[in-house]
Design a protein that fits this description.
Number of strands: 0
Strand content: under 5%
Order of helices and strands: HH
Largest sheet: none
Helix content: 25-40%
Structural class: mainly alpha
Number of helices: 2
């Protein structure tokens, strides 16, 4: 899964990549039988990813 590029401006909330990656991972998980890793809380303790 491709990752979005980080903004070149100073680091602000919008410049962080993680929330964009999470959004993409959730879109993948909605459609795909192979699950992309999101957060520990969402995936569960014994998640194999």
């Amino acid at each position: 899964m491709g990752k979005p590029k980080k903004r070149t401006s100073p680091r602000a909330t919008g410049a962080r990549r993680s929330h964009l990656v999470l959004k993409l991972a959730r879109q993948v998980n909605a459609r795909s039988p192979i699950k992309a890793k999101t957060t520990k809380r969402e995936m569960g303790k014994g998640a194999k990813v």
